[in-house]
């Protein structure tokens, strides 16, 4: 069985196993889209006044989380919930690259439909958004955030599969602190990532997509190399 065939089988197995947990992730996407759609108003003056740090923070932290299912076992941080599964898989004719790419595929398959739902709701609920950006530019805007989310979510997988639940929780908290500092510092200087990308793509600055693609490629590359080393040397 080739590497991609093995990764595909792992993807199908995981999707079947977590099909009901997908509803939790769907609820999160709907909740985020509706709440932020009501609270978020597209206004350049508010951006300059530093009003958008919270929107940036939520986008940076939460959108990548849509690549993970919300289940009781996944949220049990006291236990290493993936250890038993990985140990069992390592006794089978499944290679480490197949495990890693199976996880990457699952993240991408989760992210894609949930972010489509999220950004569609945003487009119709956010005050002033439809007037500020064309449908084509908004499609590119959603693609930028999908690429960003894929790259960041891939790095989360390092800690999800490679370490204990407690370590994973601590790292997630550190991620939140890092994104909070980034959002606050940019806001202090009158910069909003969300609005800069939005208006930039509307003005034809497509290089933002290259930034998103770069984040995605770097995140996946780091995740693959780190997980490969970790899973090959980790004692189960």
From TrEMBL:
<feature type="transmembrane region" description="Helical">
    <location>
        <begin position="206"/>
        <end position="227"/>
    </location>
</feature>
<feature type="transmembrane region" description="Helical">
    <location>
        <begin position="52"/>
        <end position="70"/>
    </location>
</feature>
<feature type="transmembrane region" description="Helical">
    <location>
        <begin position="168"/>
        <end position="194"/>
    </location>
</feature>
<keyword id="KW-1133">Transmembrane helix</keyword>
<feature type="transmembrane region" description="Helical">
    <location>
        <begin position="20"/>
        <end position="40"/>
    </location>
</feature>
<feature type="transmembrane region" description="Helical">
    <location>
        <begin position="107"/>
        <end position="126"/>
    </location>
</feature>
<feature type="transmembrane region" description="Helical">
    <location>
        <begin position="138"/>
        <end position="159"/>
    </location>
</feature>
<protein>
    <recommendedName>
        <fullName>ABC-2 family transporter protein</fullName>
    </recommendedName>
</protein>
<keyword id="KW-0472">Membrane</keyword>
<keyword id="KW-0812">Transmembrane</keyword>
């Amino acid at each position: 069985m080739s590497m991609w065939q093995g990764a595909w089988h792992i993807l199908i197995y995981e999707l079947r196993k977590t099909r009901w947990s997908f509803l939790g992730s769907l609820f999160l996407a709907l909740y985020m889209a509706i709440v932020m759609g009501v609270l978020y108003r597209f206004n350049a003056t508010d951006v300059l006044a530093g009003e958008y740090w919270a929107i940036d923070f939520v986008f940076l932290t939460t959108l990548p989380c849509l690549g993970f299912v919300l289940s009781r076992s996944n949220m049990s941080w006291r236990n290493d919930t993936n250890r038993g599964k990985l140990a069992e898989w390592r006794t089978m004719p499944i290679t480490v690259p197949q495990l890693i790419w199976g996880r990457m595929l699952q993240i991408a398959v989760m992210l894609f439909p949930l972010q489509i739902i999220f950004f569609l709701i945003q487009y119709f609920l956010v005050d002033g958004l439809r007037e500020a950006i064309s449908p084509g530019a908004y499609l590119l805007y959603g693609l930028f955030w999908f690429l960003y989310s894929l790259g960041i979510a891939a790095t989360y997988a390092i800690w999800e599969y490679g370490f204990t639940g407690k370590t994973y929780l601590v790292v997630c908290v550190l991620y939140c602190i890092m994104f909070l500092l980034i959002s606050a510092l940019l806001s202090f200087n009158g910069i909003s990532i969300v609005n800069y990308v939005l208006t930039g793509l509307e003005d034809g600055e497509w290089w933002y997509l290259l930034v998103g693609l770069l984040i995605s490629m770097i995140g996946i590359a780091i995740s693959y190399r780190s997980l490969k080393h970790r899973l090959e040397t980790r004692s189960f």
